[in-house]
Every structure is written in structure tokens, then in C-alpha cells.
Amino acid sequence: MAGRPPKRNEASDGAHAFSGQLGKTIQRLRKAYNLSLSELAEQSGVAKSIISQIERNETNPTLATIWRLSQALDVSIDRVLGTAADAPFVEDVSKADTPLLVSEDGKMTLAIIGWINTVEWLQWYDVTSEAGGVLESEGHQRGSVECLSVLEGRFEVEVADELRTAEAGGTLRYRCDRPHTVRCTSPEGGRALMVCILKAAVMG
């Protein structure tokens, strides 16, 4: 879902700072292990070009990408993100400090509101879209399920040959371990809550 630098707006400064800190940390750890970009790409499964963009502060990666890099570097995801070990349980995250992801067409924005500690099995996003916004995603790990609860407007989800639509108040649940596409089909745009359960098959 990620890989493209978000457009600059009033809410993107927090994401920019988040990515900047992350890039420096990833580069420092990679060099500490004496790994080239190619070697880290091979060990993590994250494309070399994406790692390079992260280190240069040119993209805001998904939490799944950050998780894969932390595993390859043998450090906790909290350390990668610079989270203090004794941080309070109650966290107050402002809109400006919430990392953002943007679809390839620039019309759909995903604010990462999920908790870092659950990223390996549970992720959730606040989705805002202009009319006609499209989010195309590759399949996640086998057994993964995504839930899209529409808060405003109308969205449709296409998985394989299945196409379903939901309006405000409705929820679409679908397997996301295969390529899937989310579209905002209402002329006034829309908003939704997206939750991805990455180990649904194991939990079920």
C-alpha cells in the first residue's frame, strides 16, 4: 500500500518527521551490520529501491515494511521507531503526528492509527478519499482478512472476480491474501476505517 511519497499538506509534517527519524535509524543499523542495500533487501524481502527511499526520507513505508526491516536487522520495531521502553500506556497522538500513506493516484490517504506493537498481526487505518480514489494492493500473507467499514460516502472492493459495494454504515470483509482493490465511488468522496488481520487463518 505504500511506496509513494505523500503530497505535502497540513497533516503530513508528522509523517515526514516520522519517516526522517526512521530513515536515519535504518541506515545506522544497516551499516552497523555492514550490510549493503542489496543484502538488506534480500534478507528483509523489501525492495532495494524502497529501502533507499526510506533512508533518504523520500517515502513513508507501511508498518508491515517497517516490521520486515526490523526482523532482518534483528531489533524490535519499537527500537527502529525510537519508542522509549518505559513509554506510558496511554498515548496521545495528534493528527499532525500521525503517519500518512497515499495511494498511487494521490486521491486516497490512509492515516496509520494502529498500534506499533500489533503490526505483525493487526493493522488499522483511517481512510479518506476523493471521488474516484483507487487503492491497489498486492496480497498479504496467507489467511489475511481485511475489513472496510464505511463512515461516509460509498466504497467498492474488488477481489479476484468478486465486486462488492458498501455505503455509510456498511462493512465489507474480504480475503486480502491476494491482489485487491478499494475504490471510492461516491461523487462527494468518502471516509472509512480499514482493519487488516494478518493472521486470521491461525486465529480462527
What's the tally of helices? Answer: 6
The Rg value, from CA coordinates, equals: 17 Å
Task: Give a short account of the largest sheet.
Answer: 6 strands, antiparallel
Order of helices and strands, N to C? HHHHHEEEEEEEEEEH
Strand line-up across the major sheet: 1-2-3-10-5-8
Average pLDDT across residues?
81
Number of strands: 10
Helix/strand class: alpha+beta
Q: Tell me the span between the first and last alpha carbons.
A: 25 Å
In short:
With 204 residues, this protein is of the alpha+beta class. The protein has helices at residues 13-32, 37-44, 48-55, 63-72, 77-80, 200-203, and strands at 100-102, 108-112, 122-129, 134-137, 145-152, 154-159, 162-167, 171-175, 180-184, 190-197. It has 6 helices and 10 strands.
Describe the protein's architecture and organization:
α1 crosses α3. The protein has six helices and ten strands, in the order αααααββββββββββα. The strands form two sheets. The chain has a six-stranded antiparallel β-sheet, with no helix packed on it. Strands 4-9-6-7 form a four-stranded antiparallel β-sheet, with no helix packed on it. The protein folds into two domains: 13-80, 434 Repressor (Amino-terminal Domain), CATH 1.10.260; 103-203, Jelly Rolls (Sandwich), CATH 2.60.120. The chain is α+β, with helices and mostly antiparallel strands and 204 residues long. A hairpin with a 2-residue loop joins β6 and β7.
